[in-house]
Design brief:
Number of strands: 48
Largest sheet: 13 strands, antiparallel
CATH architecture of the largest domain: Beta Barrel
Helix content: 10-25%
Radius of gyration: 34 Å
Strand content: 25-35%
Number of domains: 4
Structural class: alpha+beta
Distance between the termini: 54 Å
CATH class of the largest domain: Mainly Beta
Length: 1117
């Protein structure tokens, strides 16, 4: 650095390396310079950097004397928001600090420091062993890792601010979004730091780098400038001045679209994993990070993903990075980099433009190139439907991605060269093959390692197109390369020796394909036989919508199904893909002589969500001064201004100004609030108490209007409202749907509007067909404040509903069902009352649409569109009759002529007869009684026309503890086969069927596992395994299989029952609330073995609100 540079030019990066020795300070400012030069360099730096070291000189604070909205405190026309030049001041770094968040943020800081302390004291050889982290002893040798110590010192020096992140900082935006406009109290601080145009980067070894901010510069540019080693980091966390956090890529292999860091941003760059650690970090038990040695004198640490995310969250509470004084970082080595140096380094990396890599389906529906798969996968929750044609094959593909490491797909493949059967049997229908594919990612890409996946095509089918592969994919910017080995149909070229032959000569040959009935796992053929090399490249052109593909095909097409031979002029296939939103159109040339075309449509089903624009407008939530009922004791420090309620209680809600929210806001503003104990006394001895005067009950409640509004707001039925002391106990029935939080909030809005101010708590009981499910307790005051203003995370928790068991009426009569608050003075009954809502209509009905289809049979594609009429008659509590009639209005089932053969009682293979005998049918006519016999015990009894093929009687018992991951159920049914016209007559066949079923919410990836054992409709006995993955919006993806004592030969084609399904709630894509769900089930064949009764109301489904997943979704979504 030149000594004579002008001060204006010495805007530079400041790199700080924390040292543990407080008594020494290294002065290696610039290694190649003399000490005198370094000291001279400090003079202009100090002059030009004074604003960085003293940010308080420029910080603007807002004076908050009384509680008011932030939009009012800031003031949209506040002259202080203008700079000296009259321009609008930048409010991006606006900081709202509140005492109520101090405790939680201190806890987060302590957890970060404890993590580093634990990591530092683990011996290197046990660094990846979580047991070593959890079971250390005093005799464990300490590993002195300077990087960890440096980072600990940095974190220790950062203050706990109590900052609450804001959704926006424009006072005009806040004014028109009052629910996001916080109420600032006199105990809070609100300040707007002035921009200093720097970015602060913290590295994994604890070094801190302060860099001049430049527009349109990505995080990777700042990282390269500050790096002093050959190790290139792969990921960074960018924390903007407003607290927004984003994990961004820093390399070409993981490049993704990202935002630029703004002035005042923090950038956290953890140490990248090297060598074998890139593999070990992916092991499921390695969640704690590790410490390593990189030669004499230098040691560093790897940090877990959770630590990085938590550290980023803590940095978000600091506000703009240039507001943290450099002097707070203890002692440091300082190295200066001038602007001109920064510009030169930036010029060398300006070409880095991070963008997402396209994930495109192959001809076979799996993510890949054309004929060959890759190791790439769609995001979890995605689904894909596609069609491709390459003469003579046409493929209809459907793919599901339940996890980010697992891809499942199924397809129907038409072979245009082969007829399905004789003309008098199937007409001109070509042969259709049905298959299921599976692809599992076993290794995730890093800077050195590729994505690696293992896949099986036609997992348990006829074997006509079966094959296996191991493939790796590695990305370099716009190029995504893939290479691997293939067996079976994928590797028919056989130009590579099978590497598995080292395990035995049997791997060198592959048994001939047995078309047969399919359905069995062919373990003797997987990864057997000749092997072929496959691979290729996908190139993202400069045109965002255009992608090119080139591949080496592993198939030579000389051993096609049914002994066909296809001419191949070249093993090189190529194509071009035009991508438009969620659709891809691919055209190309394969086999060197054949044109191909495919189209695919995909979407992430787990992200589906549509605003309910067609619903009734939500009831406005107004501030109401909540006061306690007469003779109640409260603790003064919960609401120190409660004695001022009388001064505002008579003010109409519409006239309450924004600053009157101080009364309720004070309740939420004490970090150490004490609550009333269960015994009715004061939880903290010596706490002061006050007695409030009587508050008259609001006698103007119109229960009919409340009932009507709750129905219009949620679709649910109000049963009754009971007031017990300070609680409203509200009972709701007909509770259905998926997006429950919004519906529940709408219900509480009605209750808040109608309840007297003496009511401080809502206890809401949820029922379905009078079957008690759960109850939720709401702190009315906290709920109100959360819905009229923005609260910090700690305060928001007070507004969350507390879920508890809803006992049956028999048990509830012998228990106290009053809430904690109502136990203060149980002898006070003067405000208690019970209001019954108007009786519900006993007879209800509606019209719906039904759709059914049959694919893959000799009669081609068959479908039926029907009009459904439904009716429900309520008998007494928990008892009702439901009837469904169906009229086929549009169909082609007149072409349905195929009767599947069967070696078992024809319990399901009479499908054609049931679908074609009558256009007007009665699929269901069933009477049902449900009851809750005790805590967690549910019972149902039913009888009638239970489904389209069977009628009879049955019963079920379910044990399902609230919030438990486990449940157990037993059902038993005596049924008889219905006549084909689906009216009221029966055939001769009858059977007793039932199962014992265990349910397990695994707690891993929201997976539900169900295993049932019992007797099926054909009299066979066995078990069914069903595994499904649930997403936060209610979408489910799952698969099942059934094995019984029926052999594959007896079962027939398919060998055993199996299927894949996806269910999508209508709530996810309709603009109006809906209780219905669309389920797409792919079942290769309908056979008689392993067939279950399709019961209308399984108790596990009826008690869905007690579901462990649902409760978490309700409280945490």
């Amino acid at each position: 650095m030149k000594k004579n540079l002008p001060t204006s030019k010495v805007r530079k990066a400041l790199s700080l390396k924390i040292v543990q020795n407080q008594s020494s300070m290294n002065s290696n400012l610039i290694r190649s310079k003399s000490l005198a030069t370094k000291l001279l360099a400090l003079i202009p730096w100090c002059l030009s950097s004074f604003s960085i070291l003293s940010p308080s000189l420029y910080a603007q604070s807002f004076d908050v004397k009384t509680a008011d909205r932030m939009s009012v405190v800031i003031g949209k026309d506040n002259p202080s928001l203008l700079t000296k030049d009259g321009e609008k001041m930048n409010l991006q770094g606006l900081m709202w600090n509140t005492p109520s968040e101090i405790s939680a943020q201190q806890q987060l800081k302590d957890e970060l420091l404890n993590y580093l302390s634990n990591l530092q004291s683990i011996p290197s050889k046990n660094a990846n062993n979580v047991t070593a982290l959890d079971s250390r002893t005093k005799n464990t040798p300490s590993l002195k890792v300077s990087g960890i110590a440096n980072l600990s010192t940095v974190i220790q020096s950062l203050p706990v601010t109590g900052r609450v992140l804001l959704p926006a900082n424009d006072p005009r935006w806040l004014e028109i979004h009052p629910q996001q406009d916080p109420i600032i109290s006199s105990k809070d601080s609100l300040k707007n730091p002035e921009r200093k145009n720097t970015v602060t980067l913290i590295q994994g070894d604890g070094r801190v780098c302060v860099i001049p901010f430049k527009r349109s510069v990505y995080a990777v540019h700042y990282t390269k400038l500050c790096s002093n080693s050959s190790t290139k980091p792969d990921w960074a966390w960018v924390i903007q001045a407003d607290g927004a956090i984003e994990k961004v890529s820093l390399s070409s292999w993981n490049a993704k679209t990202q935002n630029y860091p703004a002035a005042g941003s923090w950038i956290w760059v953890p140490t990248p994993h090297k060598g074998l650690d890139q593999l070990t970090q992916q092991l499921p038990w390695n969640t704690s990070g590790s410490s390593k040695s990189n030669g004499p004198g230098y040691e560093f640490a790897y940090y877990s993903e959770k630590f990085s995310a938590d550290f980023a969250a803590f940095l978000a509470t600091q506000g703009p990075s240039d507001q943290v004084g450099i002097s707070e970082f203890v002692k440091a080595d300082r190295t200066f980099v001038e602007d001109i140096v920064f510009d030169l380094k930036l010029d060398q990396s300006e070409k880095y433009q991070p963008k997402d890599s396209a994930v495109i389906a192959s001809d076979w529906g799996s993510i890949g190139l054309l004929q060959t798969p890759t190791a790439r996968m769609m995001p979890a929750g995605s689904a894909l439907f596609g069609y491709s044609h390459t003469t003579p094959y046409s493929h209809y593909n459907f793919a599901l991605q339940p996890f980010n490491w697992l891809e499942t797909s199924f397809r129907y493949s038409n072979d245009g060269n082969v007829a399905y059967g004789p003309t008098n049997f199937s007409g001109a229908q070509s042969y259709v093959d049905k298959s299921i594919d599976l692809k599992v990612r076993v290794l995730q890409e890093t800077v050195l390692l590729p994505d690696v996946a293992i896949g099986i095509r036609d997992l348990a089918g006829t074997g006509l197109f079966s094959g296996e592969y191991v493939v790796a994919s590695k990305r370099y910017g716009d190029f995504d390369f893939s290479a691997g080995l293939a067996w079976g149909y994928l590797g028919n070229r056989g130009n590579f020796k099978n590497p598995f032959s080292v395990f035995g000569s049997s791997f060198s040959s592959r048994p001939a394909t047995d078309v047969g009935s399919g359905g069995n796992f062919s373990f003797g053929t997987y990864f057997h036989g000749p092997t072929a090399l496959i691979g290729g490249v996908q190139y993202q052109t400069p045109y965002p919508n255009l992608t090119l593909k080139l591949e080496l095909d592993g198939n030579n097409y000389q051993r096609e199904p049914f002994n066909s031979i296809l001419e191949q002029r070249s093993p090189i296939n190529f194509g071009a893909v035009y991508r438009w939103n969620n659709a891809n159109l691919t055209v190309g040339v394969e086999r060197g002589n054949t044109a191909m075309i495919s189209i695919s449509i995909f979407d992430n089903l787990s992200k589906l969500s549509v605003p309910k624009l067609m619903e009734a407008p939500a009831v406005p939530i107004a501030y109401r001064p909540i006061s306690p009922p007469s003779n109640e004791f409260i603790i003064a420090n919960i609401d120190p201004l409660q004695n001022e309620v009388d001064s505002v209680a008579t003010i109409p809600a519409k006239q309450v100004s924004s600053n009157t929210a101080l009364v309720n806001e004070k309740v939420m503003n004490e970090p150490n609030n004490q609550f009333i104990s269960d015994s009715g006394g004061i939880s903290k001895p010596g706490s002061p108490v006050v007695t409030m005067k009587n508050v008259p009950m609001d006698s103007s409640l119109d229960i009919a209007k409340s009932s009507e509004d709750i129905r219009s707001q949620s679709g649910w039925r109000l049963v009754q409202i009971e007031q017990r002391n300070r609680s409203w106990i509200v009972t709701l029935d007909e509770v259905n749907g998926v997006y429950l939080k919004e519906r529940m909030n709408r219900v509480i809005s009605v209750l808040h509007r109608d309840a007297p101010t003496s009511v401080t708590e809502f206890v809401v009981k949820y029922q379905q067909h009078q079957l008690p499910l759960i109850k939720q307790t709401y702190n009315r005051q906290a709920w109100m404040m959360k819905n009229i203003s923005l609260l910090g995370p700690s305060k928001s928790k007070l507004a969350e509903a507390v879920v508890s068991e809803y006992p049956s009426e028999l048990l509830e009569s012998s228990k106290s069902s009053s809430s904690t608050a109502s136990q203060l003075n149980p002898n006070n009954q003067e405000d208690n009352y019970l209001l019954k809502a108007p009786d519900a209509r006993r007879l209800t009905g509606g019209i719906d649409i039904g759709y059914q289809q049959t694919i893959g049979g000799p009669n081609g594609y068959l479908f039926a569109l029907s009009a459904l009429g439904t009716a429900d008659l309520q008998l007494w509590d928990g008892a009702w009759i439901r009837g469904v009639s169906s009229l086929r209005v549009l169909d082609n089932y007149d072409k349905f002529t195929y009767d599947a053969p069967s070696n078992l009682p024809r319990v399901r293979t009479y499908m054609r007869e049931y679908l074609t005998s009558n256009r007007l049918t009665v699929p269901n006519l069933q009477a049902t009684q449900v009851a809750k016999l005790g805590d967690s015990h549910y019972f149902s009894a039913y009888g009638g026309m239970l489904e389209m093929m069977y009628g009879g009687v049955g019963g079920e018992w379910l044990y399902r503890p609230l919030n438990s991951p486990l449940a157990l159920g037993i059902d038993l049914n005596k049924v008889r086969q219905r006549d084909f016209d689906q009216r009221f007559n029966f055939l001769d066949y009858q059977v007793t069927t039932g199962h014992i079923t265990g349910y397990w919410q695994t707690g891993w990836e929201d997976v539900l596992a169900k295993v049932s054992y019992g007797q099926y409709l054909a009299g066979d006995r066995g078990y069914t395994v069903d595994v499904s993955k649930a997403f936060s919006n209610g979408v489910k993806m799952g698969a099942y299989f059934t094995r019984t004592n029926v052999s594959a030969e007896q079962f027939g084609e398919g060998s055993f029952d199996k299927g894949i399904y996806v269910s999508i709630p209508f709530d996810a894509f309709f603009t109006k609330f809906s209780n219905d769900t669309a389920t797409i089930l792919w079942n290769p064949l309908i056979r008689d073995g392993g067939a279950k009764l399709n019961r209308l109301y399984p108790l596990y489904n009826s008690t869905w609100l007690t579901d462990h997943q649902i409760l978490n979704f309700l409280q945490n979504d």
